[in-house]
Specification:
This protein has helices at residues 2-7, 23-31, 55-60; strands spanning 14-16, 36-40, 45-48, 51-54, 68-72, 75-84, 93-99, 116-119. The protein is an alpha+beta fold and 122 residues long. The longest helix has 9 residues, at 23-31. The chain is globular.
Length: 122
């Protein structure tokens, strides 16, 4: 699907929902000189500060001070972004974590149990 879109000279970055965000897809996109944004599953393992753990567990440990405000319409949410590695990826990524309230350990703004967004390094 990605190669087909590129053959048609579709402009812009590649976006992936949780269904198609996989290591195979995310490793393929940078080889095509494109950046991506994807929705990350909570059970994905990430490596941050030398420790491998599930994204969900890392997000629960995020200190209150690390969360910054962001507005979506009239609603304020809290986010934190961090560069890290996902073990099956061949490149580092930036992960953006979102919370509804600054004091929440982990809350998803879209109805899931949690929300993580992966950004290509480009």
């Amino acid at each position: 699907m990605i190669d087909d879109a590129l053959k048609r000279a579709s402009p812009g970055d590649v976006t992936c929902d949780r269904y198609c965000t996989s290591a195979k897809v995310l490793n393929h996109i940078p080889r095509k000189q494109r950046a991506y944004v994807g929705d990350v599953k909570l059970n994905w393992k990430v490596v941050s500060t030398g420790q491998e753990q599930k994204l969900q567990d890392m997000a629960r440990q995020m200190p209150w001070e690390a969360k910054k405000p962001i507005r979506m319409g009239k609603t304020r949410y809290w986010y934190c972004r961090k560069q890290m590695r996902i073990p099956d990826l061949t490149h580092p990524v930036r992960i953006v974590l979102l919370w509804r309230e600054r004091g929440d350990q982990w809350h998803d703004v879209s109805g899931y149990n949690a929300r993580g967004i992966v950004l290509s390094p480009n």
